[in-house]
Design brief:
The chain is α/β, with parallel strands linked by helices. The protein folds into five domains: 196 residues, P-loop containing nucleotide triphosphate hydrolases (Rossmann fold); 196 residues, Rossmann fold; 101 residues, Winged helix-like DNA-binding domain superfamily/Winged helix DNA-binding domain (Arc Repressor Mutant, subunit A, Orthogonal Bundle); 87 residues, HRDC domain (DNA polymerase, domain 1), CATH 1.10.150.80; 103 residues, Arc Repressor Mutant, subunit A. It has 34 helices and 17 strands. Strands 3-4-2-5-6-1-7 form a seven-stranded parallel sheet, sandwiched between helices. A hairpin with a 5-residue loop joins strand 15 and strand 16. Helix 2 runs parallel beside helix 3, helix 14 packs antiparallel against helix 15 and helix 30 runs parallel beside helix 34. The protein is globular, with a radius of gyration of 33 Å.
Length: 729
Amino acid sequence: MVESVDLKGALKDFFGFDAFKGNQESVIQSVMEGKDCFVIMPTGAGKSLCYQLPALILEGTAIVISPLIALMKNQVDSIRGFGSTDAVAHFMNSSLTKAEILKVKSDILEGNTKLLFVAPETLKKEETVDFLKQINISFVAVDEAHCISEWGHDFRPEYRNIKKIVKEISDVPMMALTATATPKVQADIQKNLGMNDATIFKSSFNRSNLYYEVRPKESKEKVMKEMVSFIKSRSRKSGIIYCLSRKKVEEIAQMLSVNGISALAYHAGMDAKTRASTQDKFLMEDVDVIVATIAFGMGIDKPDVRFVIHYDIPKSLEGYYQETGRAGRDGLDGECLLFYNPGDIEKLEKFMKDKPVAEREIGSQLLFETSSYAESSQCRRKMLLHYFGETFNEDDCNKMCDNCRHPKEKFDVSEELMLTLQAIEALGPKFNLKHIVDVLKGVKSSEVADYGNDQSPFFGKGSDKDALFWKGVVRLGLLNGLLFKSIENYGLLSVTDKGRDYIQQPYKVQMAIDSSFEKVNEDDFDTAQMENIFDETLFGLLKELCKKVAKQKNLPPYVIFQEPSLEDMATKYPISMEEMENIVGVGKNKVIKFGKPFVELIAKYVEENDIERPTDIVVRSVPNKSGKKIAIIQNIDKKIGLDVISKSNGISNDELMHEIENIVYSGTKLNLHYYINDMLDEERQEEIFDYFRTSEIDSLDAAVKEFDGEYSLEELQLMRIQFISDMAN
């Protein structure tokens, strides 16, 4: 215990701040007095300072138990920036060499180190315990303490042994810190760390500067367009996109990159050096967007993350809150966008099927809370804070969620709410939401029949409304404190005292219908086969222009631009030569040769018709066979026979012809004369070229018919490819 320390003076001396935020000063004072304390403080509220400042003031070394190596490195770098030497802070984990560990231990033994960050896996090692017994420990801080609880979103079994290990080392004050803790998780942490008598400091979970929005997750192409549009309209802003699988992380990072967005992937499957490099690039603003699994961002102190996108639904609301909390840590606006597909919930439930029953039940309850949040028409901020046991008046949301900014029409549901409360009270606190909804709707499920609830006077009383409606009524009752859901007890519902008062003295309650999301199987969608809905008027004008340009150049219209290219122009409205390069079947050479009049026509059309251009949703696909295409082009440049090229690439002759056709139609010039000359003499080549010059139909069948079998399909196909390459590229 240290007496009469000028904490504000120390804050100014060490960190340059003039004042504490929220509960920081009270927490630090408690640590200085040698008391155990439990700190529940939202991301961005200055949780780390609560152990950093007392560690720098007190005698000895503070041990900070932390779950992620990335977090440790970031914290140590930050503290060293304020200290006079690098020895002031160290971390000890599996990333260090033996020589580096010896240096860390030497600095600590010499009394130069005030903070030591340790991974729980390192802490439990016998050699670590033996070493820590030799030093003067000021206190132990358990960061990300929710990892102790199996009800937390990032449960780590190693965290369960912390109290036992610490007690073996030294009986010193302990503090636990977390940015997310429901009442259940809070109780679990206190019990496991033996901190039931600890002083609790709980700040509001409200992040008033964050805007919460949920959008339907439809086809891959549509979501990619929305993401590219969203990010490009926030040019050079820092953001994080979270996905649940490493494969998806890689795929989306690559897709963003080819669409001109500075993005990198980050997941636990990468080597430590790559992960550290990616993290540093993000912190140093060499890259704007990180696409990551939840392995990224824990404790990353980047204050100016302006948006967080969840491509996949998180496994729990705590995880969602923690991850969205990366945005706006500087107090300025941050946007949190979640793409929701009920099919994702089903996938996550399937992943849990082989887990122990208790773990599966917990996981299902956490997923149910997350889907309820996504589907609800209620204030999202109110729902989030309710989950953490905090009451919130939705009027204070200030339209900082989509449901408050774009409210649906509300109507009186007082009678339906009364019916729901009466049914739950009569049936007793033994049933979850689905069971109650089945009873009200009159659905004779096996469970309803087993309990005899099909004989209840409430059975079928709400059959005139659908399940979505009754789910909304139950959620409304929960949000307003009229119902209680025991999450740890399979989500069973019961009526609260406030709910019983409502039954006695009902009052008017309004509700909007919850959102209905269609279940989509992402695997059903192939971006390349998605139909474009194009502007038919513009398409007609472009087709006329194509004919005009073709006439001027004495070429068939299809040589200028084919119909799929014109359709794409009439969808994306490119008004610059650069944008025109993104159009399907149009490469740089074609743009230079024919693009100008088309760009001018589209620009004029857009201006005259006041069209809102989706310039930012021109999504380029990642070419799946780019390596193969490059190999084909290089082989043709070397004048290698087509039969040899098809064999060396492991494809049939038909597939090779299709690939060559695509290469040429995309604007790349190829010289196949070396191969054609062995098949056809110059006079016959000229005859075929003359036909293609005058034909307005881009059809091989028509060419075969015209020459009445004089030339083979392969000869005509090669000649057409060479004709388009010579004339158009």
